[in-house]
């Protein structure tokens, strides 16, 4: 089945109908910035600020922050064909009778992968997120999965939620031939330009690099993007967020590449730990490397994780248990959390948990499982704030 998936992905590489790939030509020179003599570091006017799609803000304005969400994107790159007997339900319009099937098979329905068609529903969700006490969302959509910063800007204006957009590139299967041929220097210029000047032909600037996509094993093209990410981060002093491959050693392998290329691991989030590292000893070993530890699939509970059948996707209760373990081990300053909504069925419009599930359901559970209010505030407010603030 996994081989089937990889073949499907290779075919997708040539189709990519919905995943229009666009990059902004890199511009040389950084307005409002100074390059210190003898150093690579660009000291920009962003120092001490967080860059949202509506401009730079003081970090204290962010409030409760989900560090890994998507508001508009396409996940067609990772379509996973359903079992032959499920073709009819997979191709049916989304309705009440197939919601449970979608929850178990989110990647087997083309329609379910097009979150980009749900901007009105997402806007309603963001208004509810604010009413639930939310302040900021980091929108992790990068090149390759239909990033749309114009829509993000509109959503931020119309809802009052601070939205931080992501620079850079998703996993190898979405890299264009042009991207694959680029040097590390060219890739660095593009990422830096997306932060300092604007993204995908707009003046909307990204406030974080990532999610930078990596597979397992990490491909050559992904290694170049990782090096470019580290170089851009060294210049800008900005936050970085990584999508690791599905192997317990993948997060450490990524950190090693970033470190060797001059990246700042203390300002880097490692995403998707919920489906990647299961052994507590291995988790503590990875935690020692110093990145933020992100549990970002809250709300996603399914029996068979199609991209790696050996993985038992944890339940939300198990996720909370892992957070309590990390807190007890002294990592309360390094944890961040989110839902990583990337399919339609997870929106409340389709009976899903929505962007406010953590605030309304997970936080109360955390408080009953040995995590106190001060620690919850660190996880939801302080840690994201420190991560997102440019050095
Ligand atoms: C684009 C969203 C994304 O990459 N989510 C992670 C999905 S999974 O790798 O955990 O299946």
Fold topology:
Elements: H1 2-15, E1 33-35, E2 42-44, E3 50-52, E4 55-57, E5 64-69, H2 87-91, H3 99-104, H4 119-131, E6 134-139, H5 149-159, E7 162-167, H6 177-181, H7 184-196, E8 208-213, H8 220-236, E9 240-243, H9 250-260, E10 268-270, H10 280-287, E11 292-295, H11 316-328, E12 335-337, H12 357-367, H13 373-388
Parallel strand pairs: 5-6, 6-7, 7-8, 8-9, 9-10, 10-11, 11-12
Antiparallel strand pairs: 1-2, 3-4
The structure holds the ligand CCC(=O)NCCS(=O)(=O)O.
Describe the structure.
The chain has helices spanning 2-15, 87-91, 99-104, 119-131, 149-159, 177-181, 184-196, 220-236, 250-260, 280-287, 316-328, 357-367, 373-388, and strands at 33-35, 42-44, 50-52, 55-57, 64-69, 134-139, 162-167, 208-213, 240-243, 268-270, 292-295, 335-337. It is of the alpha/beta class and 391 residues long. It has a single domain (8-388), classed as Metal-dependent hydrolases (TIM Barrel, Alpha-Beta Barrel). A hairpin with a 2-residue loop joins strand 3 (50-52) and strand 4. Helix 4 packs across helix 5, helix 7 (184-196) packs across helix 8 (220-236) and helix 8 (220-236) packs across helix 9 (250-260). It is globular. The chain starts with a helix and ends with a helix. It binds the ligand CCC(=O)NCCS(=O)(=O)O.
Bound molecules: ligand LB7ARUS3
Count of individual domains? 1
CATH homology superfamily: Metal-dependent hydrolases
CATH architecture: Alpha-Beta Barrel
Report the C-alpha radius of gyration, rounded: 19 Å
Elements, N to C (H/E): HEEEEEHHHEHEHHEHEHEHEHEHH
> What is the CATH class name?
Alpha Beta
Could you tell me how far the N terminus lies from the C terminus, measured between alpha carbons in angstroms?
A: 45 Å
Estimate the helix proportion, in percent. Answer: 25-40%
Poorly predicted runs: 1-39
Q: How are the strands of the biggest sheet laid out side by side?
A: 5-6-7-8-9-10-11-12
Q: Which geometry do the CA atoms define?
A: globular
DSSP strand tally: 12
Strand content: 5-15%
């Amino acid at each position: 089945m996994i081989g089937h998936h990889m073949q499907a992905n290779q075919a997708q590489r040539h189709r990519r109908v919905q995943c229009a790939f666009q990059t902004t030509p890199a511009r040389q020179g950084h307005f409002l910035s100074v390059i210190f003599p003898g150093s690579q570091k660009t000291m920009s006017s962003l120092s001490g600020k967080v860059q949202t799609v509506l401009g730079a803000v003081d970090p204290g304005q962010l409030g409760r922050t989900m560090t890994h969400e998507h508001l508009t994107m396409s996940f067609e790159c990772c379509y996973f064909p359903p079992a032959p007997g499920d073709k009819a339900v997979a191709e049916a319009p989304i309705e009440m009778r197939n919601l449970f099937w979608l929850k178990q098979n989110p990647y087997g329905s083309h329609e379910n992968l097009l979150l980009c068609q749900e901007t009105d529903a997402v806007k309603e969700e963001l208004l509810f997120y604010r009413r639930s006490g939310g302040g900021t969302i980091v929108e992790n959509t990068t090149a390759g999965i239909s990033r749309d910063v114009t829509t993000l800007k509109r959503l931020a204006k119309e809802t009052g939620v601070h939205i931080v957009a992501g620079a850079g590139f998703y996993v190898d299967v979405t890299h264009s031939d042009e991207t694959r041929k680029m040097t590390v220097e060219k890739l660095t210029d593009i990422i830096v330009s997306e932060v300092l000047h604007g993204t995908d032909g707009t003046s909307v600037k990204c406030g974080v690099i990532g999610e930078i996509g990596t597979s397992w094993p990490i491909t050559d093209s992904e290694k170049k993007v990782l090096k470019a990410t580290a170089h851009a981060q060294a210049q800008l002093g900005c936050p970085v967020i990584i999508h690791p491959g599905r192997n317990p050693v993948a997060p450490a392998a990524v950190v090693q590449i970033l470190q060797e290329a001059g990246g700042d691991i203390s300002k880097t989030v490692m995403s998707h730990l919920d489906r990647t590292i299961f052994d507590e000893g291995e988790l503590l070993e990875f935690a020692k490397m110093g990145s933020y530890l992100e549990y970002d699939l809250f709300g996603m509970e399914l029996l068979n994780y199609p991209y790696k059948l050996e993985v038992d996707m944890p339940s939300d209760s198990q996720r909370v248990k892992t957070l309590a373990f990390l807190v007890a081990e002294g990592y309360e300053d390094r944890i961040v959390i989110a839902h990583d909504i990337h399919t339609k069925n997870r929106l409340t419009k389709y009976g899903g948990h929505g962007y406010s599930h953590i605030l309304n359901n997970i936080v109360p559970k955390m408080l009953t499982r040995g995590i106190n209010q001060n620690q919850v505030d660190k996880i939801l407010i302080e840690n994201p704030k420190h991560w997102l603030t440019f050095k």
